[in-house]
Amino acid sequence: MRLVHTEEAVGQVLCHDMTQIIPGKSKGPRFKKGHVVAPEDVDVLLSMGKVNLYVWELEEGMVHEDDAARRMAALLLGPHTKVAGPPSEGKINVVATADGVLCVDSGRLVAVNSSDEVMVATRRGNFGVRARDVLAGTRVIPLVIAEDRLAAAEAAAGAEPLLAVAPYVLRTAAVIATGSEVASGLIEDRFTPVIVDKLAGYGIEVGFRATPGDEVDSVVDAIDVARASGVDLVVCTGGMSVDPDDNTPGAIRRAGARVVTYGSPVLPGAMLLVGYFDGAVGARPIPVLGVPGCAMYSRATVLDLILPRVAAGIELERRDFSTMGEGGLCLGCKPCTYPTCPFGR
């Protein structure tokens, strides 16, 4: 830090906020700490009584926080993301440019944040976002950072972006509501409307509905007809518990699905089934979900944790569910604040 005449400060970095007082109107920082003095700033500073200024000496091999923030933001920018604007007080935000699911490379994010004097904060990955939502913010900690430390963070990030938004691509769905009591009309089907409403939030329209009862052959037939109708997603509701007459998982398997998981380390939603119907080579597999009854009456369940990725056409694997146990216990908060606080995370 050194003291220079204001007229000689162009291009230098201010060490302190510079407060401007306009009698009867305002009092506040006219120039923030870290501001790079421009030629047009000189007269303003002189009018504020600032004949001399304390500035940082930006030595060779050092990078100003604004320039460093731009480089840090560049590490984040994957598909359907962009910077929100120029750095503000050394920080840059990254926003979504499309509706979809936020994908975060968690391992490389940890590696970057393990580097000295840098930081990246993101939303939790695998949840839905809307266009213009803020996804992340990044900056360096000091006012100026050594080039080698910034380069180390860039190396930790690797060649691929840390973030991406995968747009929703599924458009149509079938809902097959199992249960003899529903098929016979003894009770009203209250499950299908819940699923219809949830899917609509991702732009998915339910174009096929069936109430085949509990018999495995009938459920298989309904699934076959749903697939033949050309839907992007098949959702089976009910019949997912361990009762002997709950045949939905067996029907889904018999219909030819490749089951990824039957069961998840999430409460509510332990009895979830996720599978896929593989089609022609190169074609996107059609997901099939066996949704447990808890989704009918609980606002947030395992279904809500997987739907963003399903809607984006991201094929789930067994390991995706293995990691859900930590944070997978719903605390039953009243009122429920999902999705702001999914399962108390």
Automatic annotation (TrEMBL):
Looking at the UniProt record for this protein, which Gene Ontology cellular component terms does it annotate, in alphabetical order?
cytosol
Function in brief: Catalyzes the insertion of molybdate into adenylated molybdopterin with the concomitant release of AMP.
* Catalyses which reaction(s): adenylyl-molybdopterin + molybdate = Mo-molybdopterin + AMP + H(+)
Q: In which pathway does it act?
A: Cofactor biosynthesis; molybdopterin biosynthesis
Determine the domain of life of the protein's source: Bacteria
Native species: Thermophilibacter immobilis
UniProt-listed Enzyme Commission number(s): 2.10.1.1
Which family, according to the similarity comment? Belongs to the MoeA family.
Q: Which UniProt keywords apply?
A: Magnesium, Metal-binding, Molybdenum, Molybdenum cofactor biosynthesis, Transferase
Protein name from the UniProt record: Molybdopterin molybdenumtransferase
Which PANTHER family did the record assign? MOLYBDOPTERIN BIOSYNTHESIS PROTEIN, MOLYBDOPTERIN MOLYBDENUMTRANSFERASE
Q: Which GO terms describe its biological process?
A: Mo-molybdopterin cofactor biosynthetic process
Q: Which cofactor does it need?
A: Mg(2+)
Give any GO molecular function from the UniProt entry: molybdopterin molybdotransferase activity
The uppermost taxa in this organism's lineage are: Bacteria, Bacillati, Actinomycetota, Coriobacteriia, Coriobacteriales
| Record domain MoaB/Mog: where | 174-312
Instruction: Report the enzyme's class at the first EC level.
Output: transferase
